[in-house]
Structures are given as C-alpha cells and as structure tokens.
C-alpha cells in the first residue's frame, strides 16, 4: 500500500492553520507498520499479551454499539477516508473508500525512543517510565479519563451534522474527524486497560456510559456538553475546541509516562487535519460572506444566502470563550502537582530556556478586585494552565489573521476579533464577572442587556439553521460558503467523497 497523505490535509508546519502543502514524502526514518490482520489493528504487539487482548476484545463490541447508536446518523455506503498504516515520521496514511462501520479503529503509538528521559519536574533527567509509578496512579488515571471523555463526546455532539452537509467534500471531512475521534478514544482506552487493571477497565466502560448533554451522566468538561447546532458551529468547534486538544495533547506528549507520551505524539498528527477543517471551514464561510457584503453593501445577508459577519463574530465569541474554560483555572494546584510529578509538561517543554523545575519562579495572573481588572504574582508552577492558554490564544490569532485577510481582499474594512479572555467565562478568575468582549467590566444588568450583540441568539441559530440545506451532489456547495481550493489527496473537489446506498 502506498503511504501517502494528500494535498490539502497533511500534517506539518502550518498545516493545521490550513496552509496547503503538497503530497507528503514517503516515510523515512524508522517506521512501525500496523498489523491489520488482527481483530484490533495495533503496533503494540497486542497478540503477545492474551489477557489484554481479551479485555480489549470484550470492549470492542461495546464501542461498535456506541458508534452505531451515537455516531454519525446519516446512512452511507462508503466514505473516502484515511487510515493509519504505519507510524513513521511522514507519510503514514492510506486513503480508500471505506464503509464507515468497517473502519479499522486501532491502537497506534509513536516509535519508542529507548534513551528518553523525563524533561521536567522533580524527576528531571530520570529514565521515562514504562509503567505507572504507584504514587501517581490516581492523577494519571484522571488525566487519561478527562482526555478520553472528550473524544466520544465530540462525535456525539456532531452526530446529526451529516444531514445538513454543505457538500460531499465537507461531509467526508466531518466523518474523517469523527472516525479519528473514535480512534483517540481507543488510544486512551488502551492505556487504561493496559496499565490500570480493574480500575482502568471500569473507567473504559464509563467512557461509553457518559453522553454529551445527558442531564444524569454528562461529559466531564463543559464545552463537551454544548450542542454543535450547525456547520458554522462545527467549524468554530474544530478551530477553537480541537485546538485546545492540540495544546493539551502537546503537554501530555511531554509526559514522563512514556506510553502516554508516545500515544499523544501520534494523536497530534491526526489532530492537525481536524484543525485544518476548522481553519478552512471558517475561512470559506468568511470568503463567501465577504464577497456578498462587498456586492450588496449590507451585512443583512440572509436573503442573499450568506451568513452575516456579525453572526460569524458571535459564533466565534461563543466557541472561543467556552474553549478557554477547558484550560481550567489560571491558578491551579492540580497543574502544579502534575508538572512537578512529571505527568504533564508545558507546550514545547524541551525548547524552553529555563530549569524545567520552576520551584523559585513566579508568573503574573489576571485578577478581578474591587471592580477592576489587574494582575498579581503567583508561583509559576500554579500558573501553568495560563501559560498553556496564552500559547493557545497566540495560535488562535493566526487563524483570525487569515480570515481577516479574506475581508481585506474583498476591500472591506470590517475585521473579526478574539474577545477578551474574561468574556463569558464559567471557569477561573473571570467566572462570575461580567466582562465585555473589549475587556470592560460591567454590572450584570448591563452585560445581559448587551449580550445579544455578543453571543449567538436563538434567532441567529434559527437563521443559520435555515441555510443548512444538504448538498449531496458531487461538486455542489451550499450558498453560504466558498468551495475549497483543492480536494482531498490530489482528487478533484468534485469527487464523490461520500456515496449513499441505492
Ligand atoms: N469543565 O485546578 P483546575 C480534546 C474542574 S480537548 C468542567 O482549575 P486543572 C478534544 C477540574 O477538573 C482536550 N470542570 O483545573 C477537542 C477540577 O476538578 P476537581 C482535553 C472543569 O485540574 C475536540 C476543578 O474544576 N484534554 O482533546 O488544573 C474534540 C478545578 O480545576 C473544567 C484535557 O483537558 C471545565 N472546563 O485543569 C475532541 C487534558 N475545568 O479536581 C477532543 C486533561 C476545570 O476539583 N485534563 N474543571 O474534581 C487536564 O489537564 C485538566 O483536568 C484540565 C483542568 C485542564 C481539564
């Protein structure tokens, strides 16, 4: 099988910001080939551990049942999907038409580096752990469960979007994201089963029991219980919320627990495509809006088949603010102990120019006191959630520049902006305060009065929903977004990426 990742969706510098790059080179350097002859495809030698194999084989039908009942609801014959075939530095995926229920979800870890040492915290310089240290068992399990919980949650949130897909190209991208989130669930379930015994198996069961938005058994993190109401909200989700995934996985990739680090390294390669979908999805929406705005001279674009820029801004405000909540509090004793224990590092830990221990260091965090926004100094270890969030926000700005370039190209003055970090927050120092997107501290009544201008209203969502008419003919696109510049894996944009049963 040819190992190739295609134009328009490969991982690499800038790829997750939607930069189009050519076909990936063939794998070089060490690659580990995935065994597809087994019931559970893997590159971890599952066949040599009968107990673990049996446990995972017992979980597999429950996963399939969950996929059938809460995965994509549109019946399809097959979808042009990529599947990992080798875990190497570059080309690692095969593209083919696959009936989605036959997708080969499996367990793929990046190559082991036998000399790897822990890069931060109290165990700095010690060999990375191949087993879970007893004293960190509970914390590691919690991190895996929180991470694992988000993956199926997003599939549940996106379940019905296929019904209103703006094109077959977009529908295929949605399903690619969905199958890979399913695989990311497998990644965490493997670690729980392989390293946490009975507790791990129980947690793996729970990952399928909690459901997004379920009043009795909700998903763990707030953003994963919100509804993904339409495709604009899906694009915002894959831009802003999947990007939290990129940053959280980036910190877990540094973990002293080597199997977790290797798992996350490979997950990050898949994640790049998810953010590509968000970056280019919003960009194509803005491109169409900009063209209509320039042509008609009004942002009231509903009658012209486009989404008003003000509504795009409100969707952006919402998704950005709920995604900031995913970073936890600006000061957190949890994050300090995760770092000191060597469980969760910082973004690009190895490139940081400091002692990687941080015991004497301080950092400034925002606070709201006496009706004003200010800062205070805290131990840097407790401010690591903010450190990560700052990296994330800087990355988010790059997409904004790209989208705004579309507005500039159309000769428009208007620009999209990221709201202030304190806007619409439910977690951390800003929770319970009423802050405008510009960073103005308001009283509750004033905030509520102005909120309809800042967050999507029921009417916005209804008007967007009215535009969400499915387009299932190859090469056809909905009115509210521009077609992409190129198709998937060098195929034409008009390719029938999804086929339906006769
Ligand atoms: N909602 O000390 P604090 C992804 C809880 S996305 C509800 O401030 P900490 C993906 C917190 O659990 C990435 N509860 O925060 C994207 C704690 O509870 P306990 C997912 C919240 O612990 C798209 C208490 O509040 N991965 O992959 O430093 C599609 C105090 O917390 C929330 C991870 O998140 C919230 N938003 O950091 C598919 C990585 N925030 O202990 C996939 C793993 C906080 O008092 N998780 N709480 O019961 C972590 O590293 C951390 O748990 C968090 C929170 C960053 C989430």
What's the structural blueprint in terms of helices and strands?
Elements: E1 32-33, H1 50-70, E2 78-84, E3 86-87, E4 93-98, H2 137-157, H3 168-195, H4 197-209, H5 231-252, H6 258-296, H7 309-325, H8 333-341, E5 362-369, E6 372-379, H9 384-409, E7 434-435, E8 441-442, H10 444-450, H11 458-467, E9 498-499
Antiparallel strand pairs: 1-3, 2-4, 2-9, 5-6, 7-8
The structure holds benzoyl coenzyme A.
Description:
- It is a single chain.
- This protein is mainly alpha-helical and 502 residues long.
- Helix content is 42%, strand content 8%.
- The protein contains eleven helices and nine strands.
- The strands form four sheets. It has a three-stranded antiparallel sheet. The protein has a two-stranded antiparallel ribbon with strand order 1-3. A two-stranded antiparallel ribbon has the order 5-6.
- Helix 1 runs parallel beside helix 4 (197-209).
- The longest helix has 39 residues, at 258-296.
- It is globular and about 65 Å long.
- The site of benzoyl coenzyme A has 25 residues, from helix 2, helix 5 and helix 8.
Quick tags:
two-stranded antiparallel ribbon; 8% strand; binds benzoyl coenzyme A; 3-stranded antiparallel β-sheet; 502 residues; 42% helix; single chain; disordered N terminus; mainly alpha
């Amino acid at each position: 099988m040819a190992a190739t990742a295609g134009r328009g969706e490969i991982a690499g510098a800038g790829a997750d910001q939607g930069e189009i790059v050519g076909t990936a080179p063939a794998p070089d350097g060490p690659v580990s080939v995935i065994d597809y002859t087994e019931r559970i495809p893997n590159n971890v030698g599952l066949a040599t551990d009968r107990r673990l194999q049996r446990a995972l084989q017992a979980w597999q039908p429950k996963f399939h049942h969950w996929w059938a009942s809460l995965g994509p609801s549109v019946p399809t014959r097959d979808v042009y999907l990529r599947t990992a075939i080798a875990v190497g530095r570059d080309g690692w995926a095969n593209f083919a038409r696959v009936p989605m229920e036959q997708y080969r979800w499996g367990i793929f870890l990046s190559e082991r580096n036998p000399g790897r040492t822990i890069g931060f915290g109290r165990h700095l310089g010690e060999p990375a752990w191949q087993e879970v240290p007893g004293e960190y068992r509970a914390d590691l399990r919690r991190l895996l469960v929180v991470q694992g919980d988000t993956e199926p949650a997003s599939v549940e949130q996106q379940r019905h979007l296929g019904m209103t897909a703006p094109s077959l190209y977009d529908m295929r991208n949605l399903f690619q994201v969905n199958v890979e989130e399913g695989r990311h669930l497998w990644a965490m379930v493997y670690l729980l089963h392989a390293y946490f015994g009975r507790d791990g198996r129980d947690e793996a069961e729970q990952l399928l029991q909690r459901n997004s938005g379920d009043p009795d058994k909700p998903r763990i993190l707030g953003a994963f219980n919100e509804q993904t109401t339409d495709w604009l909200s899906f694009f915002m989700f894959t831009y802003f919320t999947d990007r939290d995934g990129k940053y959280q996985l980036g910190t877990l990739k540094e973990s002293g627990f080597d199997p977790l680090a290797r798992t996350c390294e490979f997950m990050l390669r898949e994640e790049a495509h998810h953010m590509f979908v968000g970056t280019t999805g919003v960009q194509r929406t803005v491109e169409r809006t900009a063209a209509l705005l320039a042509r008609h001279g009004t942002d009231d674009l509903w009658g012209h088949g486009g989404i008003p820029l003000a509504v795009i801004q409100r969707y952006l405000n919402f998704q950005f603010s709920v995604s900031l909540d995913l970073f936890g509090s600006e000061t957190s004793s949890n994050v300090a102990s995760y770092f000191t224990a060597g469980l969760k590092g910082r973004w690009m830990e190895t490139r940081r120019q400091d002692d990687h221990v941080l015991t004497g260091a301080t950092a400034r965090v925002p606070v709201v006191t006496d009706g004003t926004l200010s800062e205070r100094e805290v131990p840097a270890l407790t401010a690591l959630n903010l450190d990560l969030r700052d990296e994330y926000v800087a990355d988010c700005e790059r997409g904004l520049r790209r989208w705004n370039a579309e507005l500039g190209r159309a000769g428009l003055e208007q620009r999209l902006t990221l709201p202030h970090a304190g806007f619409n927050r439910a977690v951390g120092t800003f929770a319970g305060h009423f802050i405008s997107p510009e960073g103005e501290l308001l009283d509750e009544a004033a905030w509520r009065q102005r909120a309809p201008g800042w967050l999507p209203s029921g009417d916005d969502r209804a008007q967007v929903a009215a535009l969400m008419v499915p387009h299932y003919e190859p090469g056809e696109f909905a009115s509210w977004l521009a077609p992409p510049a190129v198709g998937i894996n060098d195929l034409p944009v008009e390719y029938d990426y999804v086929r339906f049963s006769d």
